[in-house]
Amino acid sequence: MNCNELESLDLSYNQIKELPHDIFQFTSQLKAINLAGNQLSELDVNIFNNLSSLQVLDLSKNNFRKLSTEIFKNLNQLLHLSISGNPLMEFDVEKILRYTTNLKEINIAETFLPCQRLEKILNVLKNANVSIQFTNMSQQIESNEGNAMSKSNNYDFINVNDSICLNDEQFEYQKLLMAPIEEQTLKLLKDFRTFNRNQERIINRLLELENNFKFLEQGLLKIMTEMREEMNQLKISIENSEKSKSTNNENK
C-alpha cells in the first residue's frame, strides 16, 4: 500500500484474519487506523513501526487474547486506543504507557481481565491521567446520579465489579473455553484423572474406616465374651460359696 498522503484508514468489519507485516510501510502520515470488528488474533511486532504520527488506533472487537507491547514502541504520538471487545488475558499497561507517552484515552470494555489485574490497570491509568472507557466510543453512559457522562469516563466514576472483570474461578474457566480444543481435552482428562484419584482415595478411606469398625466390633465382642465368662465364673464361685456355707451349717 503506497499512500504517502493518507491520514485515515478504515479497515473495520472486513473479516480480516491477519495483516502483512509491511502493510503500513508506505503510509507514514497515517493519524487514525480502524481495525475494529475483524478476526485478528495477533499482529507483527513491527507492524506500526513506520507510524510515528498515529494518534488513533482502534483494535476493538477482534480475537486478541494478548497484545505484544512491542507493537506500540514507535507510537509515542498515540492519543486514543481501543482494545474493547477482545478476550484479553494479558495486558501490560505499564509498558504500553512507557511507549505511548501522550496517550489520553483508552477503551477496555468487554475484556476478560481478572478483577485484581483490572484494578491494578485502572490505578496505573489513573496515575498516568489517562481517561478510561467501559463503553463503545459512540455511546454515553449514565452516572449513578442519572446524569449523562461524556464518552471519556474518568476512573473515579467507574464501579469495578464482576460485570466488567472476572473473579479467579471465572478467569480460569474463560481461559479454558478459549483454549485450543486439544488443550481443553487434556485439561478435561487431567481433571477426570484427578477426580478418579480423589474418588479412589475416598473409597480407600471408607474401606479403612469399615475395617476399623470391624476391628472395633471384634474387640467389643471379645470384651463382652470375656465379661460373660467372668460373670459366669463369679456366679459359680458365689454358688459354691453358698453351698459350702450351707453344708457347714448342716454339719453343726
Automatic annotation (TrEMBL):
<dbReference type="Pfam" id="PF13855">
    <property type="entry name" value="LRR_8"/>
</dbReference>
<dbReference type="InterPro" id="IPR051432">
    <property type="entry name" value="KCNMA1_auxiliary"/>
</dbReference>
<keyword id="KW-1003">Cell membrane</keyword>
<keyword id="KW-0406">Ion transport</keyword>
<keyword id="KW-0813">Transport</keyword>
<dbReference type="InterPro" id="IPR032675">
    <property type="entry name" value="LRR_dom_sf"/>
</dbReference>
<dbReference type="GO" id="GO:0034220">
    <property type="term" value="P:monoatomic ion transmembrane transport"/>
</dbReference>
<keyword id="KW-0472">Membrane</keyword>
<dbReference type="InterPro" id="IPR001611">
    <property type="entry name" value="Leu-rich_rpt"/>
</dbReference>
<keyword id="KW-0812">Transmembrane</keyword>
<keyword id="KW-0677">Repeat</keyword>
<keyword id="KW-0433">Leucine-rich repeat</keyword>
<dbReference type="GO" id="GO:0005886">
    <property type="term" value="C:plasma membrane"/>
</dbReference>
<dbReference type="Pfam" id="PF00560">
    <property type="entry name" value="LRR_1"/>
</dbReference>
<keyword id="KW-0732">Signal</keyword>
<keyword id="KW-0407">Ion channel</keyword>
<keyword id="KW-1133">Transmembrane helix</keyword>
<protein>
    <submittedName>
        <fullName>CSON012250 protein</fullName>
    </submittedName>
</protein>
<keyword id="KW-1015">Disulfide bond</keyword>
<dbReference type="InterPro" id="IPR003591">
    <property type="entry name" value="Leu-rich_rpt_typical-subtyp"/>
</dbReference>
